[in-house]
Design goal:
- The protein has 296 residues and is an alpha/beta fold.
- It folds into 2 domains: 37 residues; 242 residues, Alpha-Beta Complex (Spore Coat Polysaccharide Biosynthesis Protein SpsA, Chain A), CATH 3.90.550.
- The chain contains 12 helices and 12 strands.
- The protein has an 8-stranded mixed β-sheet, sandwiched between helices. The protein has a two-stranded antiparallel ribbon with strand order 6-12.
- Strand 2, helix 3 and strand 3 form a beta-alpha-beta unit.
- The longest helix has 21 residues.
């Protein structure tokens, strides 16, 4: 039996190499806002208000981490405290940057926890994690005593397993690349995912990296931050001869931290994405790793 005319026309449209009007309008609006942001209307990362809760000393050495978290309540998230504690246990010094819309003085940080940190900034919630990392970079730029700079955010739950995390950090420290990530994403461009990145001394001292960090702007939309900063940084590093590497193999099918999270954990990946725990709250493998609970 012949299909109704409207079905035939719809099937034909789907095969045509043209973007439908609605999709075009969505894309046009997205990139119009992006162009407005990048028309130097968007302020530099350092334009955001920031309070120094604990000053960073000038004698930092070894592996340093700029850890960014978003605080929508006065207390830090449980998974953030756990994550930072595990980084400290691997001899990684942590500078905490708290992006928040709350009054700065209302953000509560336990004194014993704060004493373990190498610096604490409470920052106006502008530009997402890249702007926060860039702001911290401006206030405490790397020195020759820094072995690596880790850029980490709070989008992951973990480490799920101390041994897996120890092995991951050991592999990272043994890697020969200049920019190391845990997982790469193949779309829209091949790039290292930005929830956990590490840069060696060679990368930190390269003019390209310095220029990039000092020119990050407070873009208003998260998708623009991903498009402009995350997805292009890997290629920018490669273009100037810096080597990049992902520690965990990619399936080549997009974002494995979402579509292939179980396979990653089986391979020793020490994290699961917060969004995955929300999507599968009753999954047996995630019963102890919700956003508010950490594994023992």
């Amino acid at each position: 039996m012949a299909l109704p005319l409207r079905h035939t026309r719809r099937a034909l449209k789907e095969k045509l190499p043209f973007v439908r009007r609605r999709e075009y309008d969505i894309l046009a609006g997205k990139y119009a806002r992006l162009i407005a942001d990048l028309g130097w209307h968007a302020p530099l990362a350092t334009a955001a208000k920031i309070a120094v809760r604990k000053a960073v000393g000038g004698d930092l050495s070894g592996d340093i981490c700029f850890f960014v978290t978003h605080a929508d309540t006065a207390a830090l998230k449980v998974n953030v405290i756990h994550h930072v504690e595990q980084l400290l246990a691997q001899n990684i010094l942590v500078v905490l940057i708290v992006n928040t819309d709350l009054p700065f003085e209302s953000v509560l940080i336990d004194e014993k926890f704060a004493a373990k940190l190498s610096g604490i900034f409470i920052r106006e919630n502008l530009g997402f994690d890249f702007a926060a990392w860039a702001h911290a970079y401006a206030l405490c730029p790397p020195t020759a005593q820094w072995t690596r700079l880790f850029l980490v955010n709070d989008s992951m739950i973990g480490p799920l397993n101390t041994d897996d995390f120890s092995r991951t950090i050991a592999r990272l420290r043994a890697a020969s690349a200049d920019m190391i990530g845990l997982v790469q994403n193949t779309t829209p461009l091949l790039h290292l995912q930005s929830f956990f990145l590490a840069f060696t001394q060679t990368a930190l001292m390269h003019p390209m990296f310095k220029n990039w960090m000092t020119n990050v702007r407070c873009l208003k939309e998260k998708i623009h931050v991903i498009d402009v900063y995350e997805t292009r940084l890997t290629q920018m590093m490669a273009d100037v001869g810096l080597r990049t590497e992902a520690l965990f193999n990619s399936s080549g099918g997009g974002d494995d931290t979402i579509a292939g999270w179980e396979n990653l954990i089986d391979a020793g990946f020490p994290y699961v994405k917060v969004s995955v725990t929300k999507q599968f709250p009753n999954h047996p493998r995630l019963s102890s790793v919700g956003a508010g609970d950490m594994p023992s």
